[in-house]
Specification:
single chain, about 375 residues, alpha/beta, six-stranded parallel sheet, two-stranded antiparallel ribbon, globular
């Protein structure tokens, strides 16, 4: 095993991260919306996907590679976009980008990241993707896309499922907003987590550096700023404009409705990330695994299908593959790794998933990830 066996699973990393991260940082990455039924439903849905092993075959090797958009990634696993990444652990975004480059897996930088997009592109030139929260202003969007293209990002991922800033109860109770409001509670949390606090002092206070030039009121709270900056629903017309402006692969993240999938294909979109934003936007949204299971065959034929939301193990990645996903993403896993182990946590998460994906493929009798299909699912799960 090429990882620290004191923390052999993502669950172990989460437990340690909770002790090392200030409460507001942990709650931000761990929390969902409302009563968090959607977040729990994501996990339950993956558990419902039951695989039937096939024996009487040689599984001494398993090919974990995942060809997506003309690039042969080494694993069917990527780092999804997470805003405020350096708040969870100082320097997390750069560390994850370096780890993704080393491991040859996709790294998606969020519009609301806290590291300059040019820096990330230089750290992960072969695997960097950019996630776009579509600005209300078409001119702001055009300017931002020019910067992304100039930095040579490989894939553009447009997030659809945040037409309004979410009211997340954990964040409200913590008083989380940008810039930080130094309430007694926040000060206490920082004081009782000196490792995080000292690293943050050295690294600098996290902020939305890639859109700082477009922010009119720096004192607006997090949810209010996102609501102000983003379009209140990305329209077909705006998506068509993005397609015209972006020459490379174009992916939509957050699609859950079948007709939206077909419309995306008609507009020239190259791929979908099936997602419910990790249970952070709508508590009644379907679980990602259930939506993935319902993607029509003709949509699979027209676009590259990927998935996130609730994926915590290599077994979940293989389950996603059986449902037709060619790549899976797990945001909380990587940031729990960072919170638990600092920079070493990025590689720890990669290697945990690598080990678990390999063992699962061999256990079910599948020689390669790309060979996974619904034939491995029992009838009630497929």
């Amino acid at each position: 095993m090429n990882y620290d066996t004191r923390f052999p699973s993502v669950a172990d990393l989460k437990a340690r991260a909770k002790k090392r991260m200030p409460g507001f940082a942990f709650e931000y990455v761990d929390g969902g919306i409302d009563q968090e039924h959607g977040k729990r439903r994501n996990r339950e849905a993956w558990h419902d996907m039951v695989l039937t092993p096939r024996y009487l075959r040689d599984v001494s090797r398993a090919d974990l590679s995942a060809p997506v958009f003309g690039h042969a990634y080494s694993l069917p696993l990527g780092v999804p976009p997470v805003g405020l990444g350096n708040m969870m652990w100082p320097g997390a975004e750069a560390a994850l980008a370096r780890a993704a480059q080393r491991a040859n897996i996709p790294y998606i930088l969020s519009t609301f990241s806290t590291t300059d997009l040019d820096e990330i592109a230089a750290l992960a030139p072969d695997v960097c993707w950019f996630q776009l929260y579509v600005p209300k202003s078409a001119e702001v969007m055009k300017h931002l896309l020019k910067r992304v293209a100039r930095a040579n990002y490989r894939v553009l991922v447009v997030t659809l499922d945040i037409p309004v800033g979410a009211k997340r109860n954990r964040e409200l109770r913590c008083g989380l907003k940008l810039p930080f409001s130094w309430t007694p509670g926040i000060v206490w949390q920082c004081a009782t987590h000196p490792n995080w606090s000292l690293r943050t002092l050295r690294h600098g206070r996290p902020d939305f550096v890639n859109i700082a030039a477009y922010r009119e009121d720096p004192n607006r709270g997090l949810s209010q700023f996102i609501t102000h900056f983003n379009m209140h629903g990305v329209t077909r017309e705006r998506l068509s404009l993005i397609r015209d402006l972006w020459d490379g692969p174009l992916v939509l993240k957050g699609v859950q409705y079948e007709q939206d999938m077909r419309d995306a294909a008609d507009l020239g979109v190259d791929g979908l990330i099936i997602s419910n934003h990790g249970g952070r936007q709508l508590d009644a949204a379907p679980a990602a695994a259930h939506t993935l299971r319902g993607v029509p065959a003709e949509v699979h034929q027209r676009m590259t299908i990927m998935a996130d939301s609730g994926i915590r193990t290599g077994l979940d990645v293989v389950r996603a593959g059986a449902l037709g996903a060619r790549m899976a993403f797990s945001g909380r896993s990587f940031f729990w790794g960072m919170g638990a182990m600092g920079r070493a946590g990025a590689d720890q998460v990669v290697e945990i998933f690598r080990d678990e994906i390999s063992r699962t493929l061999k256990q079910v009798g599948c020689a390669s990830f790309t060979a996974m299909d619904r034939g491995w699912l029992i009838a009630s799960s497929g």
